Amino acid sequence: MRFDGPRRLRIPGGGGQPAFTVRLHQSPRALTKLTNDGRAVITSLTVAREGHRWHASVLARITQELPQQPTRRQRAAGRVGVDLGVKAALVLSDPLTLHRGAPPVLTVDNPRLLENTARKLARAQRIMSRRYVKGATQQSQGYLEAKAKVAKLHAQLAARRSTAQHLITKRLVQQYAEIALETLNTKGMTSSAKGTAAKPGKNVRQKAGLNRAILDVGFAEINRQIEYKARWHAVTVARVPTFFRSSKTCHQCGWSDTAQTLADRTFHCQACGMIMDRDANAAYNIKNHAVTRQA
Ligand SMILES: [Zn+2]
């Protein structure tokens, strides 16, 4: 394997396969610089076909000093509370700069592109199932075309979701010294008993529809990325105890609203009068109540 020009990767032949060249989405310049300097060793190359595209994934072992402590800028920013939601992808207690030069945000919405793709995918899946003939030994050309379209959109959605998630998690670990999150309950994610943002209940699933589909694998993946990227930037990850209900408690006075449901978008505190977006209140609670895990 070698890089063939600025954005080309030459895959050697073998096993009856001729050699071929693939065009790269990203410039390999950073990686070639590291390998030329002897700081990185490419250990494997995997080529796979996903939907309509070929994917070449290059695995390299890179020697790099990890920072002992967060930067001054990170320390000044301190801790951020992150509420992973259904309506908005993320609601934060403190601002985050996603794109250089753009104003910082407190809410990260699902990219429009992602929602459009998800909508197209839902439509393509309906067409596909309509064309499916049960019991047939061979499906129609129309069905096969629809099936190919579904596969293509699936791959596109996965790629777009991944790009969006990686940007968010990268910015979080770059800009804060500590990230506070809810405790991820993988069991709760499939049960419908409780209706918190991290584990939406049955009604939520129906109501949120499209958003739910998009975010289905989002919670676990964002958590996973934050955990491993935190180590690269000396960031600590803090978790809210599972018994604490961040979306049902007033972050100002601690009053608990047991009648609060996911349908209530605004938190009205009956004790101190605080009125705030439900997820923003949750993000403050997560920031205030998360416990730093001892490494
Ligand atoms: Zn209150």
SSE map:
Elements: E1 2-3, E2 8-11, E3 20-23, H1 29-36, E4 40-50, E5 53-62, H2 72-77, E6 79-84, E7 90-96, E8 105-108, H3 112-131, H4 141-175, E9 178-182, H5 202-208, H6 210-215, H7 218-232, E10 236-240, E11 266-268, E12 275-277, H8 278-289, E13 291-292
The structure holds zinc ion (ZN).
Specify the structural class.
alpha+beta
Question: What overall form do the CA principal axes indicate?
Answer: flat
How many beta-strand segments? Answer: 13
The Rg value, from CA coordinates, equals 23 Å
Task: Report the sheet-strand fraction.
Answer: 15-25%
As residue ranges, the low-confidence spans are: 187-208
Order of strands side by side in the largest beta sheet?
8-7-6-9-10-13
Bound molecules: zinc ion
- Helicity, in percent? 25-40%
Number of helices: 8
The overall pLDDT average reads: 84
The biggest sheet, with number of strands, parallel, antiparallel or mixed sense and barrel status, is: 6 strands, mixed
